[in-house]
């Protein structure tokens, strides 16, 4: 009987608490009050209710050399710890960060339990190709992203898992390619090979065309003398800065209609086929720091054109824009032509052909007797607010001081 009385009292107290909460909640505030803007959200917290964050069991195992934060229980941070070996990786870890250490070898023993790894960052170490156990990465059937940049690799790592989507190999010493190194990489969307020792002979017959999902490839700062062969139809971003490329075959881009950004600065181009860049998706074209002498056809999609530091004496707008189509106008907004041999500004006809032009950057021009000359208008601005003008000026100052850094290669996540 006493138990029933206690139960009745508890029920009455619970009912009263629920009633008080109901009375204390202002439903009109939620449904009748107008929000300040379309993105604002009104949150109501009742002070009489004790809010408890639900507890979910999470894995707690972590290598003693590393740190596994409770808020990111699937990540293991082992970076900047002067490690010389890769610690054993618990089975639940998905993101492994080992950058900035002194690791030379990648052994299978470290990864024996790492069946769920999706991302590995081994950049900025001392890893050598012959000290990577054969197939150690290929066994990681969930791996999506692999960072091996800034190491001492002399060979493209092989084999790799077919699940891989992003592969970073820049700043190594790669000068060897297994003939089947790329054959299984059908899911790779981004491949960074900048700052290695690659020449065109290493790329021939390496099955780039089988990489059906490749969107971006960075080959800057290598030893290429010709355009890379056999690139896939899917490619959108191509980085070839700082090589020794001297010509582009006339039909080279026939198989690359999706190209959106093309960077060929710091090469040895003296001329390009007139219609070579007639690509319907091209938005950015960088041909700065070459030896070009005349202009070429500009596709209607192009927005940013960099042709600084060439040998151009006059910009022939008729060549760049042979006719005007009011229904399909050119989208060019920015041209950089400093460090050429111009003696006069670009013809005003450019503003009929390219109605969206806002900036033409003339800067300094090369003089005829080893002297630089300055056009009367170093920067032409059209329809710019004072704030935009100041922003552009600041941008050019930064561009001059960090020019080579900007030209190095696409940001790895450009797309």
TrEMBL record:
UniProt domain LRRNT: residue ranges: 61-95
Keyword Secreted: yes
One of the record's GO cellular component terms: extracellular space
SMART domains listed in its UniProt record: LRR_TYP, LRRNT
InterPro entries according to UniProt: Leu-rich_rpt, Leu-rich_rpt_typical-subtyp, LRR_dom_sf, LRRNT, SLRP
Signal peptide start-end: 1-20
Keyword Disulfide bond: yes
Pfam families: LRR_8 (PF13855), LRRNT (PF01462)
Task of the protein: May be implicated in biomineralization processes. Has a function in binding of osteoblasts via the alpha(V)beta(3)-integrin.
Similarity comment: family membership: Belongs to the small leucine-rich proteoglycan (SLRP) family. SLRP class II subfamily.
PANTHER family reported in the protein's UniProt record: AGAP008170-PA, OSTEOMODULIN
Subunit-structure text: Binds the alpha(V)beta(3)-integrin.
Name of protein: Osteomodulin
Protein species of origin: Pelusios castaneus
Organism classification: Eukaryota, Metazoa, Chordata, Craniata, Vertebrata
């Amino acid at each position: 009987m006493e138990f029933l009385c206690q139960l009745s009292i508890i029920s009455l107290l619970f009912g009263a608490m629920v009633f008080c909460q109901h009375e204390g909640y202002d439903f009109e505030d939620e449904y009748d009050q107008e929000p300040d803007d379309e993105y604002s959200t009104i949150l109501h917290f009742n002070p009489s209710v004790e809010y408890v964050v639900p507890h979910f069991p999470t894995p707690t195992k972590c290598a003693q050399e590393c740190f596994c934060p409770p808020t990111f229980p699937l990540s293991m941070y082992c970076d900047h710890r002067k490690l010389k070996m890769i610690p054993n990786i618990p089975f639940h870890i998905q993101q492994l960060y080992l950058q900035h250490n002194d690791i030379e070898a990648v052994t299978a023993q470290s990864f024996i339990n790492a069946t769920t790894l999706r991302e590995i960052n081994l950049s900025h170490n001392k890893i050598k190709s012959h000290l990577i156990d054969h197939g150690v990465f290929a066994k990681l059937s969930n791996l999506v992203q692999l960072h091996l940049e800034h190491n001492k690799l002399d060979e493209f790592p092989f084999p790799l898992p077919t699940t891989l989507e992003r592969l970073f190999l820049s700043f190594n010493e790669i000068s060897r390619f297994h003939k089947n190194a790329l054959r299984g990489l059908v899911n790779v969307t981004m491949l960074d090979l900048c700052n290695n020792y690659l020449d065109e002979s290493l790329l021939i017959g390496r099955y780039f065309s089988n990489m059906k999902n490749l969107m971006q490839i960075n080959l800057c700062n290598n030893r290429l003398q010709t355009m890379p062969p056999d690139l896939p139809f899917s490619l959108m971003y191509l980085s070839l800065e700082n090589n020794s490329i001297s010509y582009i075959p006339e039909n080279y881009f026939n198989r690359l209609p999706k190209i959106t950004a093309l960077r060929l600065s710091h090469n040895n181009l003296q001329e390009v086929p007139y219609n070579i860049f007639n690509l319907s998706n091209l938005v950015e074209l960088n041909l700065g720091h070459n030896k070009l002498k005349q202009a070429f056809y500009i596709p209607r999609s192009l927005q940013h054109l960099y042709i600084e530091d060439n040998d151009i004496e006059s910009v022939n707008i008729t060549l760049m824009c042979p006719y005007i189509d009011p229904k399909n106008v050119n989208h060019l907004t920015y041209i950089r032509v400093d460090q050429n041999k111009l003696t006069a500004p670009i013809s005003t006809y450019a503003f009929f052909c390219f109605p969206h032009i806002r900036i033409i950057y003339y800067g300094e021009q090369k003089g005829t007797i080893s002297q630089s000359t300055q056009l009367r208008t170093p920067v032409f601005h059209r329809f710019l607010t004072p704030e935009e003008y100041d922003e552009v000026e600041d941008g050019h100052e930064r561009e001059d001081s960090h020019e080579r850094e900007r030209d190095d290669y696409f940001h790895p996540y450009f797309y």
